[in-house]
Amino acid sequence: MKTGIFYSFSSGKTQGVAERIVKEFGNNIEVNDIEEINGSKFLEYDLIIIGVSTWFGGGLPDAWEDFLPQFKNTGFVNKKVAIFGLGNQEGYPENFGDAISVLVELLEPKGAKIIGLTPTDGYDFEESKSIRNNKFMGLLIDEETQPELTSGRIKNWVSQIKEEYSKN
Predict the structure, then answer these.
(1) Vertex 103, ends 23 and 25: CA angle to 5°?
(2) What does DSSP say about strands 131-132 and 135-136: parallel, antiparallel, or unpaired?
(3) CA–CA distance from 67 to each of 28, 96, 160 (Å)?
(4) For the domain that residue 102 is a member of, what is the CATH number?
(5) Which residues, other chains included, contact 142 with Cβ-Cβ below 8 Å and sequence gap of 6+?
(6) Strands 80-86, 139-141: pairing kind
(7) Which domain holds residue 115?
(8) 8 Å CB contact between 121 and 105
């Protein structure tokens, strides 16, 4: 399984979580800065892990907004994609982690199979567009109000996506 992780290196907290995921994942993962690549880079991997933070009213960070045109020209057929996102459930309880849903809505029509959905238990927020069938469409990390839970959530999620990848 060739695995790549993609995020913006300019986003400090996302980068910190990504580095922890890479460490948990092991040596078989390649790191990619979305500000340095084009969409065809995704095609090199069997498993794609994407990291994105949610900004203000539920949108994507500038680096991802700038990257969106690359998705229009990239197919994800037969690609398994796991997304982790950062949000602040106390500061932005009405759109907690919404950026995950933005990426899912772009990737699924291009053929991506989203894996790594996680329970919403243990969070306290009002609303999130990133929920499907009572689960987040990826791993949601709140480094602002629950940093003590991050390590355990990462460990469980990495184990989960490895298992889900091998099933199909």
Answers:
(1) 15
(2) antiparallel
(3) 25, 22, 28
(4) 3.40.50.360
(5) 86, 87, 88, 89, 96, 123, 149
(6) parallel
(7) 3-167
(8) no
pLDDT (tens digit per residue) in 93-140: 999 999 999 999 999 999 999 999 999 999 999 999 999 999 999 999
* 96, 127 Cβ separation under 8 angstroms: yes
Domain count, the chain: 1
The beta-strand segments (E) located in the chain are 3-7, 29-33, 47-53, 80-86, 113-115, 118-119, 131-132, 135-136, 139-141
Three-state secondary structure call for residue 96: coil
Residue type, 37: I
Distance CA 31, CA 143 (A): 21
Residue positions counted in the chain: 168
